[in-house]
Amino acid sequence: MFSKHNAPKPQDPRLKAITEAIRVVPHFPKQGIMFQDITTLLLDHKVFKDTIDIFVDRYKDMGISIVAGVEARGFFFGPSIALAIGSKFVPLRKPRKLPGEVISEKYDLEYGSDCLEMHVGAVKHGDKAIVIDDLVATGGTLSAAITLLERGGAEVVECACIIGLSHFKD
Amino acid sequence: MSAYRDEDPRLHGIKTKIRVVPHFPKSGIMFQDITTLLLDPKAFKDTIDLFVERYKGKNISVVAARGFIFGPPIALAIGAKFVPLRKPKKLPGKVISQEYILEYGRDCLEMHVGAVEAGERAIVVDDLIATGGTLCAAMDLLERVGAEVVECACVIELPELKGRERLNGKPLYVLVEYLEV
Fold first, then answer.
1. Handedness of CA A136, B63, A78, B178 (dihedral sign)
2. Which ipTM did the prediction report?
3. Tell me, which fold does domain A14-168 have in CATH?
């Protein structure tokens, strides 16, 4: 488990159980992909709590005013972190889910492209933000998330994920 | 019968933070937008606290939810597992499915096999209850694996859509009602 820009704390004893709680499902959603299923982590209250606590310990004194979570699996973790550190929670969603005025950012997939949206006015100049998702692979989604927050005037301090797939480039 | 806490001073703050967006996603629907609630840390915390105060110490071991904003913090605070209920083909591995009727057409909710065990006491959490179709499907999934659904819990109720009656006597706890004036 590591964040996009910094190395993990290698000796945190909680990390072993967190790693073991994640289930790998082969060939989902398609052949060749070893899917990292974090829902098994959510079933273990202690491990789920440890996951949140590790992020909260890291961010609570950094003056973070925004926790942005990427739909949908970023929502499992982001709101709890936001509540614990006293920040706003801002959902970043697929197109046409957020009502009212939004800004959009396109990003590339392996084949084709997708789009992430954020509410206008959720973020303002001077906000310090972190972005939460369950997993970082190519970094395309996180890059789109960072761009949205920066377009809204926020400073993105860090991206935080449960899992990093080391065979993808940053 | 269910209860909602209309004397609790926190409720007013919660209700005023929910933004109503007219004609979304289509004409005629007054959409209840809870993202504005999430931008107010105190109101968001109050929302979670109201549910936690109700369910803590009641031996609830499962919080199941189709929306993922409120369920996980409640689960964490009461010491329960969190079980996401999802649209088809989102959950990897073995799932059980429950179809349900919409105003036009059908939809389907899925839950992981093995996530919940027989005899567990569960609550179902959602942002909003409208017709009650989704909550019924959620309860069906849990009951099919032998869990006991103790109560359904929602932030918002649209009472004119009579979702409460569709729950077949299962208790419903909501924080705020939205009535079209």
1. positive
2. 0.94
3. Rossmann fold (3.40.50)
